[in-house]
Amino acid sequence: MLSKKTKYGLKALAYLAVQPKNQPVQIAEISMHENISQKFLESILLSLRKTGFLGSKKGKGGGYYLIKPPSEIPLTGVMRVLEGPIAMVPCVSLNFYEQCSDCPDEASCSVHKLMLQIRDSTLNVYRTTTLQDLLV
Amino acid sequence: MLSKKTKYGLKALAYLAVQPKNQPVQIAEISMHENISQKFLESILLSLRKTGFLGSKKGKGGGYYLIKPPSEIPLTGVMRVLEGPIAMVPCVSLNFYEQCSDCPDEASCSVHKLMLQIRDSTLNVYRTTTLQDLLV
DNA sequence: ATTTTAATCTATAAAAACCATAGAGTTAGA
DNA sequence: TCTAACTCTATGGTTTTTATAGATTAAAAT
Fold it and tell me: Which of A9, A65, A95, B35 supports an S-S bond with A82, CB 3.0-4.6 Å?
């Protein structure tokens, strides 16, 4: 299941992507427009800022804005920040690899083989889709 | 993330798939061989039996066995039983469709569009892969 | 019939993840 | 200096996941 965090994050990014002249938008506006709990959205936007997707401006007329044009933001990075590893199992993760404690041999593991395929096909979508492609 | 339930279930199915003459295997044997908590495995195998993937025999010489040959078991069904809906969001699910409460219009929802693509590419893997393909 | 073996069922609880809120602090602009 | 808006820390509640305990039922062997 997709977490609310990711869902809200993507919606917020898409909302920011259609702003004229990429002007800063306040949390409150995004939260109202997209039906998202404001406090929760705060923490999500904060993590997107810390990871370099968003910029922010404090004070009057401030808000959040995209740092790069939507067409230059592939979803791989966004998804890793919001949802975590793309792989469904650590032993096939490119960025978060971990050995399975219960599994003596990866090469002969049936789950490993399957999840490798799933990772590749999912990754292929995220790599070839940018934020621009999500806009109406 | 893939749940332990699914991981264990797949391993158990693969283990059963390589049994000579498809003979019944006891829970205890699978649990030992695959490093799975026996009680937990019990409930997993039970649900696989109830959904028609496994048969069981009680008493001495009993155990669980595959009902169909591995090559005739696409992973779509198995995954739906073990892991639940394949879609990451109910509004793009074929078998478990549900409207999003927070989303006024599916057609213009950025998350919807993306998750539709992910569902299709994932489904494509599960549909074209059978239990047979997971064996070494 | 009785005993043994092994699946089945019900209930429950520990652990982790997820979602959300509260409130104080900080920064920037007017 | 006042106010608007982001930043940070902490915390609580709910749900899901994982696991365990114990009693029951069914089949086979004796």
Answer: A9
